[in-house]
Amino acid sequence: MQEQYNIPNDRIFYSRNLFFGRQIMQVTQGRGVDVVLNSLLGEALAESLRILAPLGRFVEIEKRDIHTFQNLPMQPFVRNVSYHAVNTKSVEHYNPAHMCELVLELVDMLDAGTFRPPRPTGRHIGKAVVDWETEVEIPVVPSPEPAFIFDANASYVIAGGLGGIGRSLAAWFSRRGANVATPRCDVSDANSLRAVIDYATKTLPPVKGYIQTSMVLKDRVFQNMTLDEWQTVLDLKINGTWNLHRILPKKMDFFVILSSTGGMDAFARHRWSLGERCVSVDVGVIKDVGYVAEHSDIAKHWDETKIQVLAEKDLLAVID
Ligand SMILES: NC(=O)c1ccc[n+]([C@@H]2O[C@H](COP(=O)([O-])OP(=O)(O)OC[C@H]3O[C@@H](n4cnc5c(N)ncnc54)[C@H](OP(=O)(O)O)[C@@H]3O)[C@@H](O)[C@H]2O)c1
User: Fold this and answer.
1) Cβ-count burial of 270 within 10 angstroms (0-12 exposed, 13-18 middle, 19+ buried)?
2) Phi, psi of 87 (to 5 degrees)
3) Out of 72, 112, 214, 279, which could bridge 159 as a Cys pair, Cβ 3.0 to 4.6 Å?
4) Do residues 310 and 287 lie in contact, with contact meaning Cβ atoms separated by under 8 Å?
5) pTM above the 0.70 mark?
6) Spatial CA neighbour of 163 closest among 188, 178, 177, 182
7) Separation of CA 292 and ligand 1 centre (Å)
């Protein structure tokens, strides 16, 4: 490759640690590179994004961080860089006619010698160039498909959808193709809930699933709690859930309640006894999104207890 493309030794960097970022910034006098064709993960991905020059393009061909819902640092986007996830499988899936055009164009370019595969030299450093025979068996690990695909002709309700975990779930819904709307509603008030669901029923496809993430927390030792505080917390969990049970349509695909140690299992069993689906998930403590993550004193307390807490990705995996 070096000979074929005339690449000098000092323009080749080692990517199994993060020094390459600093080295590339040095040789480009702090400007960075115009294009990154990336197959690195995690911190190495972030470092490759960091060294992108203003208006540069990041072309992502590694899919693992995408499928495991990792995050990108936003700071490089100050330089107006763009990030393109390239997955020919999804082009084939969503636009087969375009895929066909791309393949034909590529065949023409290969025929014309515009692209040449690197010549194997018999000795290699790092990556190997692989040749194959027609009949050879190639072991393949399939990339994970989402366990649940949302129905494009359905609506889904998240109560408390603007809370920490609610926002994370809304983003997760949207990654699976859903559009997100945020009507204001107090679910513990049946009239307020009925008005929103009536409006949704008239303007959106039928509701086929629900996730309960609404919560009011009055974190007190029981002896110090006023009746009012006790009632406020329970009203939302009990009346809110009961209102949703009564007002949302029957025979939905899912009705998921995120609860805590208090649990809502008896209610879930009640729905099953009526032939309606329901799962109550006793979530535990989530460290990186939600109420705990947004209250540093509580997060610190949980950190000190050394009790195992969950991450956002663990919760999303359970919901999936
Ligand atoms: N975070 C954790 O570690 C953890 C642990 C165990 C269980 N959970 C469960 O996970 C769920 C989400 O927790 P979270 O951490 O995301 O909580 P959060 O950030 O406090 O969010 C709660 C959301 O509920 C909304 N809400 C409050 N009263 C409402 C009402 N009457 N009608 C509609 N929405 C209402 C709040 O809206 P406003 O802001 O407008 O009031 C807020 O958006 C809860 O069910 C909780 O019990 C969380």
Assistant:
1) middle
2) -140, 105
3) 214
4) yes
5) no
6) 182
7) 11
At residue 152, the pLDDT reads 86
User: How much distance in Å is there from the Cα of 259 to the middle of ligand 1?
Assistant: 10
What type of residue is 55? L
* Domain extents in the chain: 2-111, 155-319
Are 2-111 and 155-319 equal in CATH topology?
A: yes
Ligand 1 atom index nearest CA of 188: 31
Enclosing H/E stretch for 316: helix 312-319
- The domain made up of 155-319 has a fold known as Rossmann fold (3.40.50)
Of ligand 1's listed atoms, the one at least distance from the Cα of 291 is 15
Whole-number Å distance, alpha carbon 216 to ligand 1 midpoint, is 6
The dotted CATH code for 2-111 is: 3.40.50.720
Q: What is the pLDDT of residues 12-53, one digit of tens each?
A: 999 989 999 999 999 999 999 999 999 999 999 999 999 999
Q: Which of 167, 210, 215 to mutate to test the pocket of ligand 1 (most atoms within 8 A of CB)?
A: 215
Q: What atom of ligand 1 comes closest to residue 161's alpha carbon?
A: 43
Mean pLDDT for the chain overall: 90
Q: What is the mean pLDDT of residues 255-273?
A: 89
Sign of CA dihedral 119, 123, 124, 130: positive
- Joined together, the tokens standing for residue 251 give 């025979």
- Looking from the CA of residue 235, the nearest atom of ligand 1 is 31
Beta strands per DSSP E along the chain = 33-38, 52-60, 82-85, 155-159, 207-212, 254-259, 279-282
Spatial CB neighbours of 269, under 8 Å, sequence gap ≥ 6: none
Rounded Cα–Cα distance for residues 228 and 220 (Å): 12
The model's confidence at residue 113, banded by pLDDT at 50, 70 and 90, is confident
Q: What is the CB < 6 Å shell around ligand 1?
A: 159-160, 162-166, 185-188, 213-216, 236, 240, 258-260, 283-286, 290-292
pLDDT value at residue 160: 95
